[in-house]
Design goal:
The complex is a heterodimer of chains A (about 290) and B (about 180).
Chain A: E1 5-9, H1 13-17, H2 19-31, E2 35-38, H3 54-71, E3 74-77, H4 80-95, H5 97-107, E4 121-123, H6 124-132, H7 134-140, E5 149-153, H8 162-165, H9 175-181, E6 186-188, H10 207-222, E7 227-230, H11 233-241, H12 243-250, E8 258-260, H13 261-268, H14 286-292
Parallel strand pairs in A: 1-2, 1-3, 3-4, 5-6, 5-7, 7-8
Helix pairs in contact in A: 2-13, 3-4, 3-5, 4-5, 10-12
Chain B: H1 3-11, H2 23-29, H3 45-49, H4 61-70, H5 73-77, H6 90-94, H7 101-114, H8 120-132, H9 140-148, H10 159-168, H11 173-178
Classes of the chains: A alpha/beta (about 290), B mainly alpha (about 180).
């Protein structure tokens, strides 16, 4: 069995706005026997400035990977963007000698060197599936959420590009569904399930992401899902914090609570809504609690 | 004339040879990951499967690929649509020719930045990382509240390292020249 100890890579969006994700994830992971070591130092994974300068993204990501190599610990992230970026850079540098030399040439300036092959990067749900195991999660469920019907939104960077991520089937992802079913809840299919939430371009054009996320919320509602489950702070922001804005723009009412997966799992593990910071959600989730209890 | 008709008229507009930069395709092909741009045969799978294209009148990855092949550098780099890709990588997974479409868009954006074209949001993100290590400016109050919530303190950034790395890869070169 894999050792359940990771270097916790928090990213930028979570401490900036979405602490409910961190609070619930830490609670659930601790109960499952996962040990988290904090990053000794931090810098952004690099993804937000890949569009500005690809090399800058590479060195920022590589610097974090070097820190993990020094600690000899695998990285665990809650953000799919960080997971995708660090995973992709880790794999590319391992596979491409020329690229590794290029990046190490830059890292030399700060006295670091990427070695490669020493550590892996995993997103929360990947660690839950591959290292913790579904069986162990099912065993930890003490208050099954029987009768609760939800839908899931994976977040692009945990699935694509397939050749770098190599987790689940990007065309028909099922692993988050299995994790949701482990809580006793039912996970429903809906139209355009694997589509992006649109969040990455909200700073350039806010209408397109709002229409896109609104379309997804409409599809989630049309299958009578009582909540949407996310595993990315950016996606969560799009569906939860922006939901009132989307409702105003589309002149439609959704009222769909958006929970981080560890909040859903935490409820099934017997944590109280307060312990899981459910009150921090923009869209009220109290009506869900009545169903599940 | 409706907006749709106007758009289709624009699409039919003649492309002038003088506006093309034949060296551009080669320039971009040199960038790692973008080598396969020549293989695009305009099947349109990327645009058909693009979630952004479903909600945008102007965004079409297929068109961006063709314009790149033709060397329509000036038009590409100044186009708003260049900044509408959300990097969901659906096109990358679906392209039958194995073209890293999102990678081409990213390379075009990098070139635009070097030429001084950069949306404000990216200036801000870059600046935040340089000054704080984080992509967003996290308010002090929020950091303090972490203790109340039982969360460990946020790891500090090594700003000296970040700044050195930014110098090495010349992130701000274009910006400084512009200012």
């Amino acid at each position: 069995m894999a050792e359940l100890k990771y270097l916790m890579f928090l990213g930028c969006v979570i401490p900036y706005r979405i602490s409910s994700y961190e609070i619930s994830a830490r609670k659930v992971l601790e109960r499952l026997g996962v040990e988290l070591v904090e990053m000794p130092e931090f810098n952004c994974c690099g993804l937000p400035i890949d569009s500005v300068a690809h090399d800058a993204m590479l060195v920022l990501a590589a610097r974090n990977l070097c820190l993990a190599e020094e600690k000899n610990l695998n990285i665990l992230t809650l953000c799919t963007g960080c997971a995708g970026t660090l995973r992709k850079v880790n794999k590319s540098l391992e596979a491409d000698k020329k690229l590794k030399e290029h990046v190490n040439g830059h890292l030399k300036e700060i006295g670091m060197e990427f070695k490669g092959g020493k550590i892996v990067v995993k997103h929360l749900i990947q660690a839950l599936i591959e290292d913790v195991s579904l069986e162990k999660i099912k065993d930890a469920v003490v208050k099954p959420l029987t009768g609760l019907k939800v839908a899931e939104h994976n977040g692009c960077h945990i699935l694509r590009p397939a050749k770098y991520i190599g987790f689940d089937d990007p065309e028909n992802p099922v692993l988050l569904k299995r994790l949701i079913e482990a809580t006793g809840a039912e996970c429903l299919d809906y139209m355009y399930e694997t589509d992006c939430c649109g969040a990455p371009i909200i700073g350039v054009n806010d209408k397109i992401p709002l229409y896109l996320a609104g379309d997804k919320l409409r599809n989630v509602k049309s299958v009578d899902a009582q909540a949407l489950i996310t595993v990315c702070p950016f996606c969560h922001m799009m569906f939860d914090i922006n939901q009132p804005r989307i409702e105003r723009l589309l002149e439609e009412e959704f009222g769909i609570p958006v929970l981080h997966y560890p909040q859903l799992l935490g409820l099934a593990m017997g944590f109280t809504p307060q312990e899981l910071a459910l009150e921090e959600l923009r869209v009220d989730a109290t009506k869900l609690l009545n169903v599940s209890q | 004339m409706s907006e749709k008709q106007a758009n289709s008229t624009r699409l039919r507009r003649v492309i002038k040879m003088g506006d093309l930069d034949p060296a551009f395709k080669r320039e971009i092909r040199e960038i790692p990951g973008v080598e396969k741009i020549n293989l695009c045969f305009q099947c349109g799978t990327c645009t058909a499967d693009c979630p952004i294209a479903r909600f945008s009148e102007i965004y079409s990855p297929r068109k961006i690929m063709r314009m790149t092949q033709l060397g329509m550098k000036k038009k590409l780099l100044s186009s708003e649509s260049l900044w509408l890709c959300a990097a969901c990588f659906t096109c990358v997974d679906h392209c039958p020719q194995g073209v890293d479409i999102a990678g081409v868009v990213r390379a075009l954006r990098n070139i635009a930045v070097r030429e001084g074209i950069i949306p404000d949001v990216f200036k801000e993100l870059t600046d935040n990382i340089l000054k704080t290590g984080y992509a967003y400016k996290i308010p002090e109050l929020r950091k303090k509240k972490r203790t109340e919530k039982g969360l460990p303190p946020l790891p500090e950034a090594n700003l000296e390292d970040v700044s050195k790395l930014f110098d090495v890869v010349a992130v701000f070169k274009a910006k400084q020249e512009e200012e």
